[in-house]
Task: structure prediction
Amino acid sequence: MAQNVPALSNSEGLSRYLDEIRRFPMLQPQEEYMLAKRFKEHDDASAAENLVNSHLRLVAKIAMGYRGYGLPLGEVISEGNVGLMQAVKKFEPDKGFRLATYAMWWIKASIQEYILRTWSLVKMGTTANQKRLFFNLRRLKGKIQALDDGDLRPDQIKQIATTLGVHESEVVSMNRRLGGDASLNAPLRSDEGDSGEWQDWLVDDADTPETNFAEQEELDTRRTMLKDAMAVLNEREQRIFTARRLSEKPLTLEELSSEFGVSRERVRQIEVRAFEKVQKAVQETAMAMQEANEKQIEAH
Result:
């Protein structure tokens, strides 16, 4: 797929690559739909190539958002291009969304996986909280205007920790390891002549209606999966699991032990067992959905 995608190498330079991909025209909705249908139904390589090339600027913009992780930007863009190609392969044009809305999740996932594989920093922890902090700290610092080098103020640390649901010490540690942020006014190139600043390539963070709809659809899918998974629990397990894991103000072990007339340790055991059952059921459902999608793609 996309054999004629412009090459991105250190010898040619990033600026030259960006100039080259700007030449590919943006597709109108109907053009994009017809190309996607041709690729899906007839395995038309030229159609896939046009879809990929028309979205290379999207990859570059998303990759710019990860420019502060100390990795060659060219490699980050290349990884994003891999994600774009995967998105094109799995894109379902009849669902009514634009390819850009669908592809950005694949692009971000591919880039983030590359960063996680490459950065030795992540060896200090790969929990969900650590990953969320790792990939959101700079964005949150920008929102509170804390992009200067050095330690954060106590109030800034508390605000970020509260927003991401992590411990304040984790914010301090991650901020020190990530170091300072690059200036947004730095020229895109200096050895070949200026062609704009980094900020010219920043992504507009405002969500489009398509993005909001896609996020809501994903949230609804997760809720449905969770609801179906909870069917494996008995009535007591459902009550304890909901009260401990799904409530905005979780009940204490003491409160539930009084409700059911059992010890706090017994409540804790039931909670853990219920969580394991739900987790297994959700994983099985997700795997079944993935296999079904892959079979559908292979059938075409």
User: Anything to note?
Assistant: Residues 264-299 form the longest helix (36 residues). The chain has 13 helices and no strands. The two ends are 16 Å apart (CA to CA). Residues 120-125, 180-186, 188-194, 201-206 have pLDDT under 50 and may be disordered.
